[in-house]
Amino acid sequence: MSENSLYTVVEGGSITTPKGFISGGLHCGLKKTERNDLGAILCEVPATAAAVFTTNVFQAAPLKVTRESLANGTLQAVIVNSGNANACTGDQGEADAYEMRAAAARYLGVNELDVAVASTGVIGELLKMDCVRSGIAGLPEKLDGGAAGAEEFSQAILTTDLVKKESCVKLTVGGAEVVIAGAAKGSGMIHPNMATMLGFMTTDAVIDAEDLLSLLRSATNSTFNMITVDGDTSTNDMLVTMASGLAGNEKLTRLHPDWEAFAAAFTHVCRSLAMAIARDGEGATKLIEVQVNGAVHDEGAAAIAKTVVGSSLVKSAIFGADANWGRIIAAVGRAGVPVSPEQVDIKLGDIEVLRSSRPVAFDEEKALHYLQKSDTVLITVTLSDGSGSATAWGCDLTYDYVRINAAYRT
């Protein structure tokens, strides 16, 4: 049975499609523009919850607060702001994150320890708490269980993103329909060692926190941890998942006959969001997908794939539509993974450019056309060292990336 036959993509679905969830957002004044900068997700019942966080040693204040809230394995609400990361802000930043949690709990009518807090934006600046306070007070009337509320939330979490990132699927678990959905933001400072900059997933499945966390970690490793835009891991990376349990299915465990289908559907949502982040990399014009096959093991294949897709020279060559396979094989060779140097094949799309580590005569015009016209460039690296395989995603490196980041604070 193919993975796609295990679940169905819900076109137009959102984080409010699973039973029990509403969301919304508004502009409270943290951003200079009128774009939304404060949002919330609310579940009608305390939801089973799990999260993964950045491995950056400098961790923003909201991460400490959210870890504390997750200690009992449940959440009922998430409050998130954009425009300010509340990172490297000392005791005052921590106090502000706790105040956000307390205010959200009060206005949303939930237990304070069932609220997660997330922030994204400029590092090292204190939050404008007068704006945050008034914004949280106004959020309840903005929350909605339909498309409008999901749209307002998705817009509220964006920073340099050009587009929102959403994904939704449904499947049958023991005769009950279960929905899984997600929304994420991320465009720059993307080289996660856990997840994207900010991601939020909802489902109405019945599942324990331990199994949900195990699945979240597994799915993250093959999706969010396989993307890169610029090689930088944020201080604020957070991926939070909430399961309302309102689908009424028999409890999902790893021994459940429908676990494989649920895991595949869950991973699909993660993969869709991760690819959308890579495609929307700051200044990007193309998504780059690197598939590595024949490595000693999957971990080695993953290391090679991420090294290739993260290479500034490879990224620049793709932007310039230059079929420079030398940059690709050089990245393979420096990934720190054992490789048989005489047995490497490389393709750009379906164009073979290297066979057994030797150049292949190929149609340069065809390669130029492929690289210029394709919005997704596929690089396939085939080794002869084992059965390990992995896929990574990234984007090209353009002039606009430098322009955007040269003036990020101004």
Task: Describe the 3D structure.
By secondary structure, this protein is an alpha+beta fold. The chain has 2 domains: 3-279, 4-Layer Sandwich (L-amino peptidase D-ALA esterase/amidase); 287-406, ArgJ beta chain, C-terminal domain (Ubiquitin-like (UB roll)). The protein is 32% helix and 27% strand. The chain has 11 helices and 15 strands. The protein has helices at residues 61-69, 90-108, 129-138, 147-156, 209-222, 259-279, 298-310, 312-319, 325-333, 364-373, 399-406, and strands at residues 8-9, 21-26, 38-53, 74-84, 115-122, 165-173, 176-185, 198-203, 238-243, 287-295, 345-348, 351-355, 358-359, 376-382, 388-395. Strands 1, 2, 3, 4, 5, 6, 7, 8 and 9 form a 9-stranded mixed β-sheet that branches. Helix 2 links the parallel strand 4 and strand 5. The N and C termini lie far apart (52 Å). The model has no long low-confidence stretch (mean pLDDT 91). Pfam families: ArgJ. Catalyzes two activities which are involved in the cyclic version of arginine biosynthesis: the synthesis of N-acetylglutamate from glutamate and acetyl-CoA as the acetyl donor, and of ornithine by transacetylation between N(2)-acetylornithine and glutamate. Pathway: Amino-acid biosynthesis; L-arginine biosynthesis; L-ornithine and N-acetyl-L-glutamate from L-glutamate and N(2)-acetyl-L-ornithine (cyclic): step 1/1; Amino-acid biosynthesis; L-arginine biosynthesis; N(2)-acetyl-L-ornithine from L-glutamate: step 1/4. Belongs to the ArgJ family.
